[in-house]
Amino acid sequence: MQSCIRGDDRTVTPVFEQLHHDGAVVTRISKMLLPEEARHLIENGKKAGLHRSTVAAGGGSSVNASRTSSTAFLKKAADPVTKCIEQRISTLAGMPHTHMEPMQITDYTRKQQYKAHHDYLRQGGPERTTTVFAYLADEGLRDGKCGGATTFYKLAQNGKEPLRVYPKAGDAVMWSNRTLTGGLNAKTLHAGEPLTCDAAHKVGLNVWFRDHPWR
């Protein structure tokens, strides 16, 4: 895959690593984004205007204490770089670009988190089938010492602790929100754990795919 940055002749070679398979498949995608691509998305998020994150509720959305980050949606195919990144993620996820929601920047600083939740909506409309959560910035979060993990509470790691995926800029974690028989998969319950250090800063990218085309 070619870099999405104009004039950049580097190639991007993502690496897939299955982290879990029993009950729900969770996959890390390493080296999915170049640093310059991540910065482009972060800057576009700032331009779009970060605001207090909301959660889905009653067919709409509302501010809730369970989610304390800031977010901004990026208009689909807003510019050539963004469109290129969208198409790369669609290819890696094996999902049509037409089924992708507008990507969402999510910004976390100290103590901010998103408590345990599912990405599927149960709202009667097109359902979210696949999630890709990319890490765009991981300041002060190396080695898992300052929190910020994407944690799956119903999926065990090494037979004991919940599966935790720690942020690493340029990488992503991907999973299906459905079971192998097509139902909603309750085992995909997950959280963005709080950042515990003063200087810690995590910027993520939510990419959700629906089971029907999405505007």
Produce a short descriptive summary.
With 215 residues, the chain is mostly beta strands. Helices cover 13% and strands 35% of the residues.
Question: What's the structural blueprint in terms of helices and strands?
Answer:
Layout: E1 15-20, E2 26-30, H1 35-48, E3 51-52, E4 55-57, E5 60-62, E6 70-73, H2 80-93, E7 104-108, E8 114-117, E9 128-139, E10 150-157, E11 161-165, E12 172-176, E13 190-192, E14 201-210
Antiparallel strand pairs: 1-2, 2-12, 3-6, 4-5, 6-7, 7-14, 8-13, 9-12, 9-14, 10-11, 10-13
Main beta-sheet annotation: 8 strands, antiparallel
User: What helical percentage do the residues reach?
Assistant: 10-25%
Q: Taking Cα atoms only, what radius of gyration do you get, to the nearest Å? A: 16 Å
If you consult CATH, what is the topology?
Jelly Rolls
Helix and strand pattern: EEHEEEEHEEEEEEEE
- Poorly predicted regions: none
The N- to C-terminal Cα distance equals 26 Å
Main CATH class: Mainly Beta
Secondary-structure-derived class: mainly beta
Number of domains: 1
- Counting DSSP H or I runs of 4 or more residues, the number of helices is 2
Globally, the shape reads globular
**Beta content:** 25-35%
Q: Which descriptors would you attach to this protein?
A:
215 residues, 35% strand
Can you give a write-up of this model?
With about 220 residues, this protein is mainly beta. About 15% of the residues lie in helices and about 35% in strands. The strands form three sheets. The protein has an eight-stranded antiparallel sheet with strand order 1-2-12-9-14-7-6-3, with helices on one face. Strands 8-13-10-11 form a four-stranded antiparallel sheet, with no helix packed on it. β10 (about 150-155) and β11 (about 160-165) form a beta hairpin. The protein is globular and about 45 Å long.
